[in-house]
Amino acid sequence: MKNYFPEDFSETLFELLDIDIEYLPDDCYEAIFKLNKHWVKGAELVDYHADESTVLAYTLYYMPMNIPKLWSVLARCHKMMDSLIHKDKIRVVDIGSGPGTFSWALYFYLKEVYGAEIAAKLDFTLIDQSDLFLDKAKDLHTAFASETNLELKKGQWQDLTDASYDLAIVANILTEEADLSATCLNNIDAESILILEPGTQRDFQRLLPLRAELMKNRKIHFPCTAHGDCPMAEDNWCHFNINRFVLPFIQMISNKAGRLNHKHNFCAFVFSEIEIAYAKNDWRVLSKLRRVKRSGIRWICDGEDLVEAVLNRRKKSPGNTYFLEADTMALIRIEQESLAKTGRIAEGSTVNPPRQ
Ligand SMILES: C[S@@+](CC[C@H](N)C(=O)[O-])C[C@H]1O[C@@H](n2cnc3c(N)ncnc32)[C@H](O)[C@@H]1O
């Protein structure tokens, strides 16, 4: 995955947070350990958004670590991106924005991939309940994206009903809702809705009723390639991963926090009013981390059928090539549909990656 961080990202962030990365204060590490235990082990955590050192720790560590997740999804949503970049203004609402993680991620991406002029068309609304996070978002906007419009709203995202948007980003927030109802996003008036949540079984399974609800008046653009009922059983979950170590200081802090695995898992969905038609034989390659851990298997799914794609035992068989290379999130087109249904990629079959 390409890295779209601006060259001076780390230095500007340290300056803005007024920290010396070589000598991070203990309370910053303690806050990171506390958040880490909460998200990895489900330990209790109260009001982290009202505590100065925890907000700083989030902005320093979790914000940059999360940013590449959005890039990896946007890179696979060409139809939605084509529509966004042709608008006069790109109106984005960042729900439970925290420090504005995914607003800045979107800005960096648009600037690099589509050019500075398009990035400057961004019109951001960030809504969060926390003054401390909104203050950080304001500073980050000045430092990184000052040519874009910014509106900061303090309040509960559930009360947001007064405007319409081209894109709503809902990230790492539904996981905090004790009672996640299927209709909880119905108030959000947005052409496209992008959801990014932790890559756990609990979080994925909680999103399924929401997926079904949003599919009533939108098309699913990611990850599913068919507009059907999700085939994941209750003890399974669809997730992807990015490398969390693209910035050296994240690796340094992770080492101290004992998070040695470079893979950072997440669940993601994109729903849009924009029409999309994947081919019948388009499949998404899911993460390798599955219930059944056997070598030579890739899980592929089209949103209706979940299949273990079994590689041909002769490793060099042309049918294996794309599977061996296919990364998590790749879209592959299997020319012989029946083979995909049984999961067996027979010798001589072709597996072609369509445009991502
Ligand atoms: C885990 S952070 C995620 C921040 C950002 N979206 C990200 O992924 O990096 C959750 C944020 O949602 C905010 N939040 C939680 N519940 C909220 C609510 N009901 N209304 C508004 N903001 C909320 C918190 O204050 C916090 O800033």
Provide a short characterization of the protein structure.
The protein has 356 residues and is α/β, with parallel strands linked by helices. The protein contains eleven helices and 13 strands.
Please report the total strand number as a whole number. Answer: 13
Strand content: 15-25%
**Which architecture of the largest domain per CATH?**
3-Layer(aba) Sandwich
Small ligands present: S-adenosylmethionine
How would you spell out the order of helices and strands? HHHHEHHEHEEEHEEHEEEEHEHE
Helix content class: 25-40%
Quaternary organisation: single chain
DSSP helical segment count:
11
Supply the CATH class of the largest domain.
Alpha Beta
Radius of gyration equals 20 Å
Distance N to C terminus: 12 Å
Mind explaining what this structure looks like?
It is built from eleven helices and 13 strands. It is 35% helix and 21% strand. 40% of the residues are buried. It folds into two domains: 264 residues, Vaccinia Virus protein VP39 (Rossmann fold, 3-Layer(aba) Sandwich), CATH 3.40.50.150; 71 residues, no CATH class. Helix 1 crosses helix 7, helix 2 crosses helix 3 and helix 3 packs parallel to helix 5. The strands form two sheets. Strands 1, 2, 3, 4, 5, 6, 7 and 8 form an eight-stranded mixed beta sheet that branches. The protein has a five-stranded antiparallel beta sheet with strand order 11-10-9-12-13. The protein has 356 residues and is of the alpha/beta class. Strand 10 and strand 11 form a beta hairpin. The protein binds S-adenosylmethionine (SAM). S-adenosylmethionine binds next to helix 3, helix 5 and strand 2.
